[in-house]
Design brief:
The protein is about 60% helix and about 10% strand. By secondary structure, it is of the alpha+beta class. It folds into 2 domains: about 150 residues; about 55 residues, Roll (SH3 type barrels). It has a 5-stranded antiparallel β-sheet. β2 and β3 form a beta hairpin. The two termini are about 75 Å apart.
Length: about 250
């Protein structure tokens, strides 16, 4: 959008500001200014000549009618008339020039205003397109995120110890640590379901009762439930000191 804004300002400069500046500094308006200045100078000269004629008329009335003064008065009056005639002609030219310039300025100003409005409209349309595209991309990204499968959480728990379900014997000689881990059998209740991932593991459903025979310090426990034995996470169970006889029967 910053790029579109820069394009809009550039369009304002080339299509509006520069043509208006050229119009103000252009030849037609400059010619009209010169005519107006010439008219103003001629008006000042005519006013001065009118004062001169008035003075000569007063002097002529005060004297007995000197021929030289009369001729000077006639020359001044003739010049005054010539100035008035020129002023009339120049005034008409100046008015016509200013009228033409005004009409031209109005026409060009209207054109520049139209160009400015068009540039502004194009800018907003482009910005709207950008926002629509951005909205579509955001909706698409949200749908992709919402529709993506949940991330697979890798089980950081180590695998259960080696276990032989058939004869209940460990495949290797127990270490001292393993001997310490061995506990007396106790009953526990599954507080969370667990799905076995190998043949040595035991499926659990919430509420199942298990005879726990071994608890390992790596987070696994070994026991029997519903006639099957295997390993399961020890955090999925809780020890129970008292259990109904009907629940104990379910273990075997």
């Amino acid at each position: 959008m910053e790029k579109e804004r820069a394009n809009l300002l550039k369009a304002f400069g080339t299509q509006v500001a520069e043509p208006l500046r050229a119009m103000v500094m252009g030849a037609p308006l400059e010619d009209a200014r010169h005519l107006a200045q010439r008219y103003d100078r001629m008006r000042q000269e005519a006013e001065a000549q009118a004062i001169e004629v008035s003075k000569r008329q007063m002097k002529l009335r005060e004297t007995s009618g000197n021929g030289d003064m009369i001729s000077r008065l006639e020359a001044a009056e003739s010049k005054l008339q010539e100035l008035k005639s020129n002023m009339g002609t120049l005034g008409k030219e100046a008015v016509a020039a200013m009228t033409a310039v005004e009409a031209q300025q109005q026409r060009l100003t209207l054109q520049r205003l139209i160009a400015m409005v068009e540039s502004e409209r194009s800018y907003h349309q482009r910005v709207l397109q950008i926002l629509d595209q951005l909205e579509r991309e955001m909706v698409s990204e949200r749908q992709r995120i919402e529709g993506a499968p949940p991330p697979v959480i890798e089980n950081s728990m180590p695998p259960p110890p080696a276990y032989e379900e058939v004869n209940g014997i460990f495949m290797r000689t127990p270490t001292v640590a393993e001997l310490v881990e061995t506990v007396e059998h106790f009953l526990a209740e599954a507080i969370q379901s667990y799905r076995a991932e190998s043949e040595t593991e035991l499926n659990l459903s919430t509420g199942d009762y298990i005879v726990v025979r071994k608890v390992s310090n790596n987070g696994w426990a070994e026991g029997e439930c519903r006639g099957k034995a295997g390993w399961f996470p020890s955090e999925f169970i809780e020890k129970r000191d008292r259990v109904l006889a009907s629940k104990v029967a379910q273990v075997f």
